[in-house]
């Protein structure tokens, strides 16, 4: 399974912010849409990711205050990315190794979407459930072996 399969199921909605946006506005956007990340775009290009991780770190180091900061000051300006053609078997260890919960999907310099660790886990579980269902159907339809009522004549004589 490829990342493009996840994007196809997930849909095309992409939430972005500007690096010069106030953190308060970015937080309101994330809360309004119940999302954990915003792609940070400048002049049509991805320049970073803002996730709840950066927000919590900012709150923790500033006594619970965002302090009028802008997105650029706290965003991850070197997010790990993948392409639509990246296989899920490659994405999972990448996300685990860097503790990344959100990964931008890039086609050359164009942002195609953002996948989350949840999206990846859901795709794996759905795939396994489908495979299990197919295997169970295959086993249920397994042809029964014929059991001869009487052995062939040559075996009858040998008894």
Automatic annotation (TrEMBL):
What the entry lists under Gene3D superfamilies is as follows: CBS-domain (3.10.580.10)
Q: Does the keyword NAD apply?
A: no
The yes or no answer to whether the keyword Metal-binding is present is no
Q: What SUPFAM superfamilies does the record tag this protein with?
A: CBS-domain pair (SSF54631)
Q: Which Pfam families match?
A: CBS
Source domain of life:
Bacteria
All copies of the CBS domain together span: 6-66, 75-131
Q: Which UniProt keywords apply?
A: CBS domain
Q: What is this protein called?
A: Cbs domain containing protein
* Provenance organism: Hydrogenophaga intermedia
């Amino acid at each position: 399974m490829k990342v493009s399969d996840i994007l196809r199921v997930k849909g095309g909605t992409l939430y972005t912010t500007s690096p010069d946006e106030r953190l308060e506005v970015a937080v309101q956007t994330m809360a309004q849409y119940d999302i954990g990340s915003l792609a940070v775009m400048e002049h049509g290009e991805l320049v970073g990711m803002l996730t709840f991780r950066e927000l919590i770190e900012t709150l923790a180091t500033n006594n619970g205050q965002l302090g009028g900061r802008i997105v650029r000051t706290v965003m991850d300006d070197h997010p790990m990315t993948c392409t639509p053609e990246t296989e899920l078997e490659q994405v999972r260890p990448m996300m685990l190794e860097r503790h990344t919960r959100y990964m931008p999907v890039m086609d050359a310099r164009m942002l195609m979407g953002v996948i989350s660790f949840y999206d990846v886990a859901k795709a794996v579980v759905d795939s396994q459930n489908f495979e299990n269902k197919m295997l169970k159907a295959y086993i249920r339809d397994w042809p029964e072996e014929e059991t001869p009522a009487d052995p062939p004549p040559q075996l009858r004589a040998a008894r």
